[in-house]
Amino acid sequence: MSPQVIQLETPRTLSFEIFRFNPEEPDVKPRMQTFLLEEMPFMTLYLALNRIREEQDPSLQFDFACRSAICGSCGMIVNGRPRLACSTLTKELPNRIQLQPLPVFKLIGDLSVDTGIWFRGMAERVESWIHENAPFDPTSREERMDNDLAQAIYEGERCIECGCCIAGCGVANVNPDFLGAAGLNRIARFMRDSRDSRQDEDWFNVVSDENGVFGCVGLMGCHDVCPKGLPLLEQYAYLRRKMLSARLSGA
Amino acid sequence: MQIQTTDTLIIGGGLAGERCAIEAAIAGHDVTLLSLVPPRRSHSCAAQGGMQAALGNCVKAEGDDPSWHFLDTVRGSDWGADQEVATIFAEEAPIAVRELAHWGVPWTRVRPGKNTYFIKGKKVEIDEPEEKAGLIMHRDFGGTAKWRACYASAGTGHAVLYAVDGEVVRLGVKVLDRMEAVSLIHEAGRCWGAVVRCLRTGRLSTWLSKATVIATGGHGRIYGRYTTNATINEGSGAVLALDTGIVPLGNMEAVQFHPTGLVPSGILVTEGCRGDGGYLLDREGKRFMLEAEPEKQELASRDVVSRHMMDQIKRGRGVESPSGAHLWLDLRHLGEKHLRTKLREVWDICRDFNGINPAMDLIPVRPIQHYSMGGVRVNKDGEAYGMRGLFAVGEAACWDLHGFNRLGGNSLAETVVAGRIVGRRVAEFTAATSLAVDTKIATAFLVDAEKRLQSWLDRPSTGANVYQIRDAMGEIMNRKVGVFRNGSELEQALMELETEREKIARVGLRCRAPGSNPELAAALRIEGMLKLALITTRAALERTESRGAHCRTDHPTRDDARWLNRTLARWPQDAKSPVLSYEPVGLIDLPPGDRGYGQSLQRPMEQSIETYNTDVPAAMRRHGALPTSEAMGTRMRWGAWRSHEKRPIQPERNE
């Protein structure tokens, strides 16, 4: 047997410029710090940041959990664009890599931000749970649902609450009450769900002011940066259509 | 000093912890849930393929019922499971799945009319009847007699976690994220809460509670980077229990290796790929599972498939790569449409991490640590051995549904089924007790934790670093306590782990930054993780047989005469090494037999099942089991599986 020989080019030396600030050390001013690291095959920002922390600066703060782009922990600004760090391969980036924490969210330290509190707040505002028609009956078979509807709900359910859409949104950056794409997508997900008893009129108050769907000025940064490729344009169009028809029918 | 009180303290915000929290909150208790990460980022979200529940909705699931599910689960466990727990689980799984539908999980549904499936390498068309239209659909998973896994595309865990967390928010459960419990507060066999470190500020606090629940998930990270597990699965809950010196961990040698970890990242590629008809290929593109397991093929249980894969690699039939040899997962024949809908998350992972298109390219895979069958040993109510008021649930617990091998789709099911059942017990316990604890006890545990923290901060900033020890542990575990094990390698592993443990004393701490201090957080965990690794290795060395995922090449026989039991490991305070003991697996109804796949060397029981069962309740009590709300055996369905046993089970082949 002949082992496959992989010819490696001379590895690049990557220059990471990383935002540093620890709120527990308020006297030390925010700054950018540079680290050099040799690139490896299949290197992601997850691997790179851990190597920097373990070999160069043990105080560096960042968040990862699943490292497979499903838990939404590691949103950050990579060369000016919100992305999931774990699924960003360094080979797609230039030699100079600038990393900053997501804006809008409260800073915990360096690249770590508090998305948990923001999303819990959003979930409470949009009441992100099924408003049931009747209590659960453990003795009866499940309610039927057309598979196409299940798939349509799943489409919106795929949001992983990474916060990239909020960070990339011109409105959310100036209006902290704006629900943003993540919040509006969540509303569309429940509006579609036949198991939810809320009517268009119920949604009207939540959605149709400047903090809701009519606050969006159409830059659609959210759509461009969503790492899961959610159909945010369609979700917005769906919400606007539903709200306009609710209005016209006299809600 | 900050002392906070709550009725029910839940440590861990994944599905098991959250489902438990719901029961306690519905009962009117004040519930506080602590989590390392916001709950929706818990590792439950990574379960892709499905959740087992015998609804019997599609043609290939016809005639399914809980006793079939029981049968598959016990066989899958290689008779290591507690059969009463397996019975309760199989009976309540359908209710749990329907409850999740009620809470909004977009389960994939039955599409009436002609559907195309891949079954054992063949394209098959099946007419799903109109009367089943819109019911919850199933897909095939390894080691089951019927299609039983309910699924939401390939994002089942995510969808379930979001629905359950929605209920947690609705009920107003107090959730504190970025909080890590560092020790349990206990006295005279009664648990009263935990000392907790805030991962934002680094400050310690104490939480006093009537009932405390460990729901921290598995400990795959003792295998370093050789695991599908998230970085947060470091076994902190198992260590909390172990550090009491009283509560034992069960079956720590039972470690599941998932056949299809992506190379080189180790990211999970769901079993749903093979369930939906994917193939495993060797370097020449040959389907080696056809010969190895003619009956189940790619869908034998995970332990069996992993062994055949490692065997191929050992025989030089793997594909060499800079990060070691691997095999191929072939999904090309399923077609782009199927891959981009029912296996969409797999499509994304292949694209994002390997830059490949599974409709055209083969996927490099290799077995890798995936699931901890072992954990905090609890009785069927979920209450820890030897410690009133302490409960454990989900992967953190050894309840013991999975024995020596867990079936795919049974872990997600366990989180919500056990969460419901144990949650009810926790609620009852909380209601029946009061917070009668001297705060001096809490102070003592807090002072201990402060001392431990300070002793790290007092260390020099030079010397070995904690990450080197973590990496060395992972290498040892992966090389010597992996899919195939033998006595001499396990002994070496024990010595090497012991050496790493001694090195901890010489580790320095370079980071003094205030706040969470990531290096300090890692340092605080390393000793506990090494204890878990040592216990896993010791238990694997002592168990001189092969059962489920525990495969000893020097002891290839499953020895029911000597080893039809569960390992319990305690670590008494200040002891140098763990103390092992053995209890019966539980009451036996389905007698040990052949699984219908995998190796079939067995040494039968010497005593009768009746004799074995006679001693079970007393033996378990001797080993620390606390009384349960219903007597042991109450939920057994003696002989219910017999109607499914028409064909005599015969070994497929002998090795």
Structural classification of chain A: alpha+beta
- Which residues of chain A sit in consecutive blocks of at least 5 with pLDDT less than 50? 1-5
How many beta-strand runs of chain A? 7
Main pleated sheet of chain A: 5 strands, mixed
Strand order of the largest sheet of chain A: 2-1-5-3-4
Query: What would you report as the Rg of chain B, rounded to the nearest angstrom?
Result: 24 Å
Largest sheet of chain B: 7 strands, mixed
Sheet-strand content of chain A, in percent, reads 5-15%
* Terminal-residue CA separation of chain A: 74 Å
Overall 3D form of chain B:
globular
- Total of helices of chain A: 8
Q: How many runs of DSSP E, i.e. beta strands of chain B?
A: 25
Protein architecture, described:
The complex is a heterodimer of chains A (251) and B (655). Helix content of chain A is 32%, strand content 14%. Chain A has 8 helices and 7 strands, in the order ββαβββββααααααα. In chain A, the strands form 2 sheets. Chain A has a 5-stranded mixed beta sheet. In chain A, helix 3 (147-157) packs antiparallel against helix 5, helix 5 (180-192) packs across helix 8 (232-248) and helix 6 (200-207) crosses helix 8 (232-248). Chain A starts with 12 loop residues before the first strand and ends with a helix. Residues 1-5 of chain A have low confidence and may be disordered. The longest helix of chain B has 25 residues, at 518-542. In chain B, helix 13 runs antiparallel to helix 14 and helix 13 runs parallel beside helix 15 (518-542). Helices cover 33% and strands 19% of the residues of chain B. Mean pLDDT of chain B is 95; it is low at 648-655. Chain B has 16 helices and 25 strands. The N and C termini of chain B lie far apart (64 Å). At the A-B interface, helix 2 and helix 3 of A face helix 3, helix 4 and helix 10 of B.
